[in-house]
Amino acid sequence: MNRLLPDPVYFAGLPKVITSGAVILRDEHGRVVIEKPNYRVHWLLPGGGVDAGEDARECAQREVREELGLDLQVGRLLTADWAPSRAAVSAPMGVHFVFDAGVIPFAELEARIIPQEAELDGWMVADDAALDLLGPWGARRVRRCLAVLDGEAEADLY
């Protein structure tokens, strides 16, 4: 018997991966919009998990609309990063895509952002020192994306 695709047992045995899409949204001073979810200790970039049938860019655009009330065009891919699986908490490997969402002046951000109360405790624009609120991994990822935007580094596409 000739099979073009492996049977479901083969797929069931493969590692699982969770993907997400997030954005780097800056103000006119180069500060980055970050948000404080009520379900995490640390702050995050605007974004979230990819739903069935959407790609990471669509996810990032949807999440920014849902979380912050902003309908933005999501631009180029800045990085594709990953986090290893963590057996201790049964977490699968994660692949995180971060896109450029451009620049919006701070006064306009203040006027337009409507945080999703069910999920967010707040938001802020973070300068370099405040990026540490994202935790070591998150801060390193954002600083790398900013270097790409400033032309100091190539996009990281692991």
From TrEMBL:
PROSITE patterns for the chain: NUDIX, NUDIX_BOX
Residues making up the signal peptide according to the UniProt record: none
Family annotation (SUPFAM superfamilies)? Nudix
InterPro entries linked? Nudix_hydrolase (IPR020476), NUDIX_hydrolase-like_dom_sf (IPR015797), NUDIX_hydrolase_CS (IPR020084), NUDIX_hydrolase_dom (IPR000086)
- Where does the Nudix hydrolase domain lie? 15-146
Alphabetically, the GO molecular function entries are:
hydrolase activity
Q: Which Gene3D superfamilies match?
A: Nucleoside Triphosphate Pyrophosphohydrolase
Q: Which UniProt keywords apply?
A: Hydrolase, Magnesium
Q: Which cofactor does it need?
A: Mg(2+)
What family does this chain come from, according to its entry?
Answer: Belongs to the Nudix hydrolase family.
Protein name from the UniProt record: NUDIX hydrolase
